[in-house]
Amino acid sequence: MSDFARQQSEFQRGILAGDDTVLAEIIDGPHEKREVLFGVYRYAYGSRLVEAMRNDHKLLHSYLGDEMFNEMGYAYVAANPSQHPNLRWFAQALPEFLKSSAPYSNYPILSDLAALEKALNDAFDAKDAPTLAVAYMAGFAPEVWNDLEFMAHPSAIRLDLSTNVSAVWLALKNDETPPDAVALEEPSRLLIWRQDVTPMFRELSAEEAMMWDEAAGGIPFGVLCSMLATYDDAEGAAARGAGYLHGWVTAGLLAGVSGDKGKSGA
């Protein structure tokens, strides 16, 4: 390793890990000690990363306020040194950090809010893909429907969260005072996706969440309807399944379907 490369490595360790070895390579300035001069770089590094987190989690920032968000942000920076040249991906582990690190883990709304914002960001950045149209689905012959399998749009993300995060998110989005955070008896089942160019989400019933999860895993429509029969009226299972499917298609949640050979006129 060249002397310059060694100095770069020590400088990086000094920034990322707090290693002071690099101070031996720095001379005091005319007005400040080397510790102060190098501290400027350390502070700028953390400040830039916290700013990136603030941009990615604007509603979490609004919920916590400047002081608490900055305190949380620097704690995250210390625990998760940047590993990617693109700052867009720096805060990817924030929901898990808030869920597992005290004192933030004592307030589940924080990790839930971070998880929802992350999912909306990820949906916005997801790959493009064509979406199914209702007219296209109408072309399948009735006898092949049981065997149809569906492919979720690349932007679609499912989350199970433990608080009333939807109500808190909506209030913050509308610049309103959010309701008190409440732990739910059952999880809030959310489906997040990008419709056209707009990331969005909605809550699902337990039944629809089950059907979505299984459909996204490649379970054919006929089996899905059999599974729906265990949730409610068995005779209405097929109709409920068709209703859920119609909603997914019109929302742009599906990017593909098997069974083209079974289309009418094919």
UniProtKB/TrEMBL annotation:
Superkingdom of origin organism: Bacteria
GO molecular function, one term: DNA binding
UniProt keyword annotations, A-Z: DNA-binding
Stated name of the protein: DNA-binding domain-containing protein
Domain Putative DNA-binding: from-to ranges: 7-98
One Pfam match: DUF2063
Family matches, as InterPro entries: DUF2063 (IPR018640)
Originating species: Bradyrhizobium sediminis
